[in-house]
Structures are given as C-alpha cells and as structure tokens.
UniProtKB/TrEMBL annotation:
ATP binds at residues 53, 57, 113, 139, 147, 193, 233. Belongs to the SUA5 family. It catalyses: L-threonine + hydrogencarbonate + ATP = L-threonylcarbamoyladenylate + diphosphate + H2O. This is Threonylcarbamoyl-AMP synthase. Required for the formation of a threonylcarbamoyl group on adenosine at position 37 (t(6)A37) in tRNAs that read codons beginning with adenine. It comes from the Bacteria. It comes from Candidatus Enterococcus wittei.
Amino acid sequence: METKIYDGTQLVEAAQELKKGNLVAFPTETVYGLGANALLPDSVKQVFTVKGRPQDNPLIVHVASFEQVKAYVDNFHPATEKIVKNFWPGPLTLIFKIKKDSLPSIVTGGLSTAAFRMPDNTKTLEVIRTAGVPIVGPSANTSGKPSPTTAKHVYHDLHGKITGIVDDGATRIGVESTVIDLSDPTADPMILRPGAVTKEALEAVIKKPVTIDRHLVQADETPKAPGMKYKHYSPDTRVLMVENDDWEAAVEWAKDQHFRTGVLAGPTIVENVRESVAATYMYQDDSVTAATKGLFAGLRGLDEKKLALDLIFVQVVPEEGLGIAYMNRLKKAAGQNYFKK
C-alpha cells in the first residue's frame, strides 16, 4: 500500500476514504491521530492491528460538534455544558456513559463508557464534517512508542500500512489531551490523564472540585482511558529522568560506564553538557511549554538507530500546571526510573 500525503486541497478525498473504512492519520493541536470510521468495527479493528495495540485499550471518538455526541449519550454530567462551552474545540477528552450498543464494543474496550473529543484543528474538523461520521483517533504511531507530532513521524511508523496522512505541520501542544471522567453525573469530575487543560482551569470554570486519578494501570488491567498504563510512550533506547541538581553526576557516571548518551533538555542544560555526551536534542527554550512540545519529537530523534545510543537522559520539570502532563508522559517513557547518584 502506498500511503498518500493529503494537503489542504484534498480533504474531501481523505474524508471519503475514512467514511468507507480506510485508515487516514489526521493532525490535532496535541498529536497526530490514526483515524478510522468509529461506526465500522472492521475498520476500527485495523487500527489495533496497524498499531499493535491491545484491544482492551479504549479509543477516543473524535467529533466535529457536541451535537454528534448526543447521538450516543443521553445522561450528561451537570458540568458538561460549561466544560464544552469553554474548552471545545480543544485538548480535552470527555468520558460519558453511553446508550447501550450505540458504539461498537471494540471502540469502548467493552466498557459502558466512551471518550469523546472535538480537536482544535480546522483541517481535521472539516474532514470529520465531510465524512459525516465520528472517527476514532489514537496516536498515529506504533503502540507504546513516543506519540507523533508531525506527519513525518506518522510516515516513519506507518507508511505502507495506512491509506493516507493529512499533513498540517507540527502540532502546537505536543502531548495528548486531558481526559476527564464525567460518566457518573453524581460524582466530582475526575482527570484520568493530564494534559494542557489543567485541574485549576477546569475548577475555575465549573466552580466545583476536580479530582485526579493517580493510579497507574498495570499490564493486566483494562484502562478506562488511553495513556493510563504504567509504561508507555517509550523509545527503544533506555530513558532515565535527571533532577536539576544531578546533571553533572549523571553525565560523569555515563562516561565511566562508556555509554553513548543522549540528552533531551532545554538550552541551559544542553549547553552545559553538550561536549560530554554523544548527542543532544534541545527544547526551543527553557519553558515548560517548550519542553512539552518537544518531548516526543526529542525522544524520537534521539532514538534513531544511526545514533546508536545506549541511554537518553531527560530533563524533569516541576509537577504543576502543564508540567503535570509533561512529567506524566516522561515518567511512563522512563518506566518511572530516575538517575540516582
């Protein structure tokens, strides 16, 4: 199969391919998704096959309007209207209890709930509207590996396996959407996966508490939302997180071990260690926003076989605001492992 790259003039063609059951990757503001018609079980099954993803892992259903969600849900959480008005389209996924058998069980992972999102990308919204069907959209990469933030990343992982890729350049945010559980209308909303929409931002809008589920889903458990497993987003090369005060010790240790080491960090750290390591990938600046946008691209870049690295050291950031989402992805990429003196 030849994987086609669709530009902005070919969106109708991309939509037609999706509607009839073929796989087309699409851009969002977070990462690129692997699209399939959510109403065709055989099409959705191809997503799991192409990604190598376990079928117990539920998928996010992407829509072009909140009206589409109403076809599958009839009992909404009281906070839903305010949340949708303030954060859609945007990097926020909402989990609802759905009408029985309204979506194929392969979409929901066999659960009675489903996750919905309206992405903030004009090309993708046009594709969904033109197709006239909701589309599933897990990250368009090999399962468990760093998520794709450019069409080139998607092509690297999936060329020859999918019909096409809608190209809209690099994504703006760089990590997947916040996932919030609204399936119990009587309970406080709960964040299952952190992202760019923070607990504080949600609470400011709904004027009620929002809790965070910090449980790490093990390999034998069925997650309620994507990205909840203990280890995820991992390159083939071993990753270790490095605290700000430990960089000198970490680099010296790696040299003593004769490791070919890569460093993924902001300019201040990279400039201090560049001469002592085999390769570096530098964030655009020292901000948490730049780190979040560059994390997956950096992990992918340093994992290239031609670099032949033994180890990747990655900068940590404070776990507050957007830093919670960054550290959530980084901890899973590193299997929760820090460099220890």
